[in-house]
Amino acid sequence: MMTLHQHLTDPVAIEARRALFATLRAYIGAWVRTCADYYAASGIYERMSRLSDAELSRRGHDRETLARTIVNACDRGEDR
User: Fold this and answer.
1) How far is 42 from 34, CA to CA, in rounded Å?
2) Could you tell me if residue 66 is inside a domain?
3) Within a domain: residue 80?
């Protein structure tokens, strides 16, 4: 059985911890970016939803798809 010191200094264990933390950093970073994207989309939607149907139409939008259009425009997801 390995002692705590051996485990903490073992190169394989060190690399495994690095990989774990890199994965966690990437996951948390993606989550923060997603939150920022949706926060920005909510502000845009708040402003645009106040426009009349005629003004939305003039800008090339309609009320039924406005939310989805804005979210798609603000989404920086990995598949874009």
Assistant:
1) 12
2) yes
3) yes
Is pLDDT at 25 greater than 90 in this prediction? yes
Alpha-carbon separation of residue 54 from 4, 11, 36, 59 (angstroms)? 69, 65, 30, 9
CA–CA dist 75, 47 (Å, integer):
18
10 CB neighbour count, 10 Å cutoff? 13
Residue 17 domain flag:
no
Q: Number of structural domains, the chain?
A: 1
Q: What is the pTM of this model?
A: 0.69
State the residue range of the domain holding 50.
Answer: 30-80
Classify residue 77 as left (phi > 0), alpha (psi -120 to 50) or beta.
beta
Q: Which residue would you say has higher pLDDT here, 59 or 8? A: 59
Mean pLDDT confidence for 49-76: 93
